[in-house]
Fold each of these.
Amino acid sequence: MRLLRFALLLNSMLMVALLSTGCSPSARSPSSAANISGINHVAGQTVNSFTVNGYGGSLIGNSCCIMLPDKWRPGLKANIQWEVDPQTAGNPPSYSDWDKYLAWEKSLKASFQKHSIVVEIPKYDQACGLTVHFLPCNQVKVTASCYGYGAPEYPVKEPLNMKEPASCPVN
């Protein structure tokens, strides 16, 4: 009987502990789904694909979705991974010579470059989606701005069609 009472008491204490942790201030802050979009600022380079914290993005329109905290907090980061086609493989041969086409395709895929970077997400009052800006020298800027690229209030001012410099600074 003592063992049964002890087990019930222990079970009750465990339940109270579990229930109270969900109400503690350290519980995760509310988040909302936001679109992911990208803008390539580099002329002569194609961004084939990219992800933000594992969620896929798009350079044409918006992709859904990434979870962003409703309230910005310091230390909020985005892990960006992307693949670039430096356009060094040349034009494809015709399909009539299938072996040459397959060799070209293999060369094309081998020329793709993969990059990754972790960047701070700048302060926002309201998360209106996350836009990733691909800049020369494999640099990236992100914003959760509600304004569109080119609007005076938009925080990223770099122009489109920027040239890749002859050499990039070493980080």
Note: The chain has one domain: 31-166.
Amino acid sequence: MELDAINLRILACLQENGRISNQDLADKVALSPSACLRRLKALEASGIILGYQARLDTERLGVEIEAFVQVSMREDEDGWHDRFVAEVGQWPEVCAIYVVTGESNYILRVQAASLKNYTDFIVNRLHRTRGVKDIRSNMILQKLKEVPSGLLGRRPARR
């Protein structure tokens, strides 16, 4: 599917407000409502738009700790990657799992209600996971910028 300037503007508007009405979206991107809806349905059908979700205030939900956790694995056993991802992917504290380059194999984005809960997660679950060789945590002290991803810096001009 072609991502022309109008499609990019549609995507940018949806990232700012996923609940925008089709009429308001059409006005923002200078299309008729029917043309806008056709483009939106095409973006959904092509798989560029994977879905819609609410952004939550984790602090108000009781999340006090958020961290990026680097995990290095022993790679001497068959199936170590699939086994690790299957196990860790089931844990509710793990919000995201990334395969990365560098000294570690993975970076996990982890949330916990308290330092005690985070410590329990690291010591009693992650550290005891088969094949884990090294764990390094980077605690998030303050979020300075957090935007939805996906447009690869291709922000369209506003009309």
Note: The chain is about 35% helix and 20% strand.
